[in-house]
Amino acid sequence: MIRFFKEVLSMEKRTYGGKTADIREHLLRQIEMGNFPRGSVLPSERELTERLNASYMTIRKAIGALVEEKYLERIPRVGTFVSSQIPEHKVQRQLGIVVPAWTAPENSDFVMYASEAAEHEGWLPKMVSVRHWEDKALLDAWSSFDALVCFAPQPVNQMPQDLLEKFKSHEKPVVFIGVPAHHFGLDTVVGSMELEIGIILDRLAAAGHTRIALIEQCTLMNDQQVVDVPTFYSVWRKKIVETLGEPAVADLQILVETPRFELPHRAIYSKVRSLGRRLPFTAIVTRIPFLWGVTAALTDLGLRVPEDVSIVSMGDRQELEFYRPELTYLKVPLRDHAIQAFELVKERLENPALPVLYTMITPEFVEGKTLRTLKK
């Protein structure tokens, strides 16, 4: 965190002419902008002297003024801290929006929606990218910001116990998005995966489809394929077994391993392309992030959507309305996730002793042009 402050202060090394008021104004501006969050330690007076090109006494007087105004707190032999008690009308509360470090349209969309929700309530949104649960940026965010909304960078069951207990303490609101983290005692906004895949399978069945392929990403563990979203897979598998019998599962499951540090499109494209033109299914269910690989492979095979094969997707992206042919898909709106997450943040702030807070987002089925009704 101190290194972060060094970077902020070194962006522009300017001379303040020895004016205490100028130094005070500069430091206060950094606090108001969220660069020095509530509860954070201020760089030492000697370091500020060097960074701001001002005298030691000028820095000390400026900090003293902010201490008197209760923006800062001095703790002898420890340091100077930004006060945790600064009222909202003086300094905005800060919402940390935690997303995985790798880019994805869904992550960017959620950051936009969460920022919109935060600014609407007068909060200052701050985006934080993390690689895994033990990434120091995550703990720094929890320490620095007034609340967090979090896209899990890894499965929740892999979270270190000490971090889990910190989040469960509700010392600060922490709301998880899109994963059933409430099972671990964490406030959560999520859809129902069972409901979502069930709606899709029912729509396909109503259109006359029984041979429905599932294209999903998997990981090889102990010589076994482990699907990334086991709930989707288990509900789909149960439906296929009930309709066509156990042997049909092997023909209709298309599980693809994606190399590390690579998007899934290429691996999925190669897998679908290898099936050839005589597909053993009439419809495909897959998630939006895999769609480009699927449609590119079908196009290069000379197959048409939906004339030769139907596709129903799952997911939510702002760009989806511009896909052609127009997609038939089910979404659990990310904007609703963001709005409801902020509602849980406010509720938790008002009453930290509440039991686990949980909100389910209602899915929406979007009629497009990629689902064909089969002749009966």
From TrEMBL:
One Pfam family here:
GntR
Molecular functions (GO terms): DNA binding; DNA-binding transcription factor activity
GO BP term, pick one: negative regulation of DNA-templated transcription
Residues crossing the lipid bilayer are none
Name the SMART domains for this protein. HTH_GNTR
* Designated name of the protein: GntR family transcriptional regulator
Alphabetized UniProt keyword annotations: DNA-binding, Transcription, Transcription regulation
Where the record annotates domain HTH gntR-type, the positions are 17-85
Gene3D superfamilies to which the protein is assigned, alphabetical:
3.40.50.2300, Winged helix-like DNA-binding domain superfamily/Winged helix DNA-binding domain
Q: Which InterPro entries match?
A: Bact_HTH_transcr_reg, LacI/GalR-like_sensor, Peripla_BP_I, Tscrpt_reg_HTH_GntR, WH-like_DNA-bd_sf, WH_DNA-bd_sf
Q: Which CDD domains match?
A: WHTH_GntR (cd07377)
Please verify whether the record's keywords include Transcription regulation.
yes
